[in-house]
From TrEMBL:
InterPro entries registered for this protein in UniProt: G_GB1_RHD3_dom, Guanylate-bd_C_sf, Guanylate-bd_N, P-loop_NTPase
Domain GB1/RHD3-type G: 31-243
Family membership noted in the UniProt record: Belongs to the TRAFAC class dynamin-like GTPase superfamily. GB1/RHD3 GTPase family.
Official protein name in the record: Putative guanylate-binding protein
The entry's keywords: GTP-binding, Hydrolase, Nucleotide-binding
PANTHER family: GUANYLATE BINDING PROTEIN (PTHR10751)
Length: 477
């Protein structure tokens, strides 16, 4: 595990950029769409332990993924006790490659977070971490103990309201993706049974869905809010592990846990990590890769470094800047690639005039791509960003045009190898004929010299033809 966002002595969040890049910029996953499964919730509620169970799934997915029942639970650091253990936001050290139900390759990142409402952290720190959590994740598991209460949903809504200012830049129907409410040690299975179905019933009850006519205005507003900002909100009721062995309770080994708990544990893990449940991280409905997520985190984290929550308008501007940078890089990469393709299309040196004509079409295409990038056309700074981008295009074209002009000059100065060698070949062949006429006394040697001269001439001619790109019937023979 790698701590990428720390909490300093003043309770402020600080980003460890080097640690962040060491995880998200690994060569084998940096360009893959990223799925971010993050576990959040109150402190001492077992977030790290459930993450370590989730860790076993990608490592052992083709076997009994729970592994050796006597093996202690390893991965993210955790320990039993009353004091908070995890600090800041912690990434697993590498991403897992996986395939979604529609056969797309993705990279899966597992993330642990500092618990909310801890005795050693302020309310501002808790809200900062929770708000960052919803901005970073594509699947957020909100972990609670024994019962789901209205206060949990109120806390979640507070965090989502700040994140919504970033994610809903273009008025998307669903600013976030998926939230799973995991209720641990659920004690009333006769009222609502364990698993997904019972969890859904409990959630509907709390949000006033079962009896809409009796629901208060506050419940209706909260339900409407979650429906508008989340693409999916589910709840899972997990039974108590029922440890029969005190050592297992301390080290997390599944030996001694009731069989029914393991069954529901499998159901939960499959419900969040199976191919059909993997959700790629998006920002303003745009899928992002691991490397793009790295830059997004670097862009937004400094806004949460003060004691106050960031002003929504500032967050919107920062996210728009993030998209402007992505749009610029992608369009510039496409522009340079298209220019190189023009230069290499037929192997013939292109004239500066023809290059300019083709560049006009390429420029028009990439500018259109830049102008229609998400979240740019709504902001005043777009004009300034566009002007800066055009200057970069001009610089790139000037560099390529200079290369073409230089190559053209060298081509004009280059001696005509073909013509010069052809003269030499004729001289060699003629020398053989002269020998045949003037030295009759040794005809065998003379004929050999003449034939050799002609053969050498033909061979060199073929070499020149190959060197200059010409293929003749004689060469093919």
């Amino acid at each position: 595990p790698v701590t990428v966002i720390r909490v300093n002595e003043q309770g402020k969040l600080t980003l460890d950029s080097e640690a962040l890049r060491s995880v998200l910029l690994q060569e084998d996953v940096r360009d893959l769409p990223v799925v971010v499964l993050l576990v959040a919730g109150a402190f001492r509620s077992g977030k790290s332990s459930i993450l370590n169970v989730l860790l076993r799934f990608p490592y052992l997915r083709f076997r009994n993924w729970l592994g050796d029942p006597y093996k202690p639970l390893e991965g993210f650091p955790w320990m039993p006790g009353a004091d908070a253990h995890t600090e800041g936001i912690v990434f697993w050290s590498h991403l897992f490659r996986a395939t979604t139900a529609d056969m797309k390759e993705v990279a899966v990142l597992l993330v642990d977070t500092q618990g909310s409402f801890g005795t050693s952290s302020s309310m501002a720190t808790s809200v900062h971490i929770c708000a960052l959590s919803v901005l970073i994740s594509s699947i957020q598991v909100f972990n609670v103990i024994r019962n789901l209460q209205l206060a949990h949903l109120q806390h979640l809504q507070t965090c989502y309201e700040y994140g919504e200012q970033v994610q809903g830049l273009e008025g998307a129907a669903s600013g976030f993706q998926r939230c799973v409410l995991l209720v641990r040690d659920w004690p009333w299975p006769k009222q609502h049974e364990f698993g997904w179905e019972g969890g859904d019933q409990l959630l509907q009850k709390i949000l006033g869905v079962e009896s809409k006519n009796k629901a208060t205005d506050e419940l209706r507003a909260r339900r409407t809010y979650f429906e508008s900002c989340l693409s999916s909100l589910k709840c899972f009721l997990m039974p108590s592990p029922g440890h029969t062995n005190y050592v297992c309770c301390l080290n997390g080994a599944v030996h001694g846990i009731t069989p029914s708990f393991n069954e529901y544990l499998r159901d939960f893990v499959w419900g969040v990590l199976s191919p059909s449940e993997l959700v790629v991280k998006t920002v303003a409905e745009v899928p992002v890769t691991a490397s793009e997520l790295c830059r997004f985190v670097e862009k937004i984290t400094p806004m949460f470094s003060s004691e106050k929550l960031p002003v929504p308008g500032i967050m919107v501007g920062k996210t728009a800047e993030f998209f402007a940078e992505l749009a610029r890089e992608k369009a510039l990469k496409e522009y340079r690639y298209s220019l190189r393709q023009v230069l290499q299309s037929n192997g013939i040196l292109i004239s500066p005039e023809e290059l300019k004509q083709k560049e006009v079409n390429i420029r028009e295409k990439v500018l259109d791509s830049f102008d229609n990038a998400p979240c740019l056309k709504l902001y005043e700074f777009n004009k300034k960003k566009r002007e800066s981008f055009i200057k970069e295009l001009d610089t790139s074209f000037s560099d390529v045009r200079a290369e073409v002009l230089d190559a053209s000059k060298k081509h004009r100065k280059k001696p005509n190898l073909k013509e010069d060698l052809t003269v030499i070949f004729k001289v060699v062949a003629q020398a053989g004929s002269v020998c045949a006429r003037t030295i009759p006394a040794i005809p065998t040697a003379v004929n050999y010299a003449a034939n050799a001269g002609n053969a050498v001439a033909r061979g060199l001619a073929e070499f020149v033809a190959l060197s200059t790109g010409e293929v003749t019937a004689n060469i093919k023979q």
